[in-house]
Amino acid sequence: MRAELAQPEMQVVTTDVYNQLFTMHGSIMMFLFLGPFAFGLANYIVPLQIGAPDMAFPRLNALSYWLYLGGGLTMVSGFLTAEGAPAFGWFAYTPLSGGTYSPSIGGELWLIGLLLTGFSAVFTAVNLITTIVGMRAPGMTMFRVPIFTWNMLVTSGLVLMAFPVLTAASVLLLSDRHFGTHVFDLRFGGSPLLWQHLFWFFGHPEVYILALPFFGVITEVLPVFSRRPVFGYKGLVFATLSIAALSTGVWAHHMFVTGAVLLPFFQRALVPDRGAHRGEVLRLDRHHVAGPAAVQDAPAVLHRLPHHLPARGLTGVLLASPPVDFQVSDSYFVVAHMHYVLFGGSVFALFAGVYYWFPKFTGRMLGERLGQLHVFSTFVGFNLTFLVQHQLGLSGMPRRVADYRAEDGFTTLNVVSSVGSFLLGISTLVFLVNVAISLRRGREAGDDPWGGHTLEWAAPSPPPPGNFTCPLPPIRSNRPVFDAAHPGAGAAPDPAGARTDAGGEAGT
Amino acid sequence: MTTLEDPPVLPDAPTEEAHPHSGGLLGWLTTTDHKAIGLSYMVSRRSPSSSSGVCWLW
Questions:
Q1: How far is the alpha carbon of A501 from chain B, nearest alpha carbon, in Å?
Q2: Which of A31, A207, A317, A343 is most exposed, with the fewest beta carbons within 10 Å of its own?
């Protein structure tokens, strides 16, 4: 896609193929990449963090994975058909996604893939909630649960709220395409706008489904390397709960330009939503600002990540204002905003999580030099690619176009953006090479290479079936492994509010 | 009620049925171990992207 846009009036692919590419790019990133990665990470880490031997429903867990894989492959298999993949965008607005304008079999495959991955997400959410609520080790009260696990609990709740709506909408659209119903067909009394309502009732929480797990990752990583307890544990928990609750009531801000939503209500409803989000970001940033110098062997990604925390979502505050939204809607400004949220926030945190937990997964450390190279090239490539897209949008370049003219004045910034995207591609190769080398020749990690806080660091690396070979340390705060390793340091402040003096009660 | 004097806790070991020890492809296809499934999610998250590219080239 960036090759196509690198120069004006250059044709690397046809317009139709470009439309298919951006549709499948969005679909893969939104439905098949960040969310499933978060669920994979949670699958591995959550039982370890709460001292459980496995998930509550292991067979349902396996079914969820196979539904995800089958659904994902079904979704992308449209490329194998004669008409190609669907070209109606990842949001599949009707009537464009209906049978009249998108009759190809690729559309059906996309919708069926969406259904399968939706069921996968719901099953995994049920499994995670049951595991976290019912399988915590004795002594681990809810306010001693690690923040990553807390965030996965909240994310799972959001999945149960949002995904069934999308699943139902997908069934209705399939029904319109195949069985002659007219739910979204204006000619027969249906409503194309209903699809947008249903889709964004899923879509806005989906942004947080893709963000909250990685907020949890950052909240695990930063305190360990700043050598201090989680700052404002309870505040973070309540901010996360607030974000989740508020995110279900602001879907129509994605529909300002339809002219069919109550602007003042949804504009004002976004204020507390953005406020809770900003509060969480600032709490996390405090670890970076107030902490002592990071230890030498801290993953390099940590030094770069916090720079994106204040920036992520900041443009979302602007887009919450209808006058600004009217001006930049459907421009590259929105593309830049979305990528700053999901790449600048979630993908950087995803890499932080991989660097942090790779020793637990494999028993080996990732290489430091290649890690530095990877993070530096990702940082530069990311900003080259997406920072300039804000200006492209403000200059009037529309999104979802395969071409532009030289006299439009978009050429220079598009060249910069394309160069940045190629650098991003190279940086990902560096990461994969690092993983491949480290799996074979990486330094032995031991059970707890970082001086970690939470229970996964009490398990061998990699953990055996059943996870723990030694008795768990007593759980008297939200960082039991640190407490056990530093008995003279005193227990961390217990967010559960329990007394920690000898003989006192430590909560129920 | 949990007190500071709680004895250390060792989680129950999973049953043999829950974690068949067959390796290789069959082991991957039939595993119910949360760690193997978690890693499968994280690794195969790339398979839709990769297969998408392959399908398009096809």
A1: 9
A2: A317
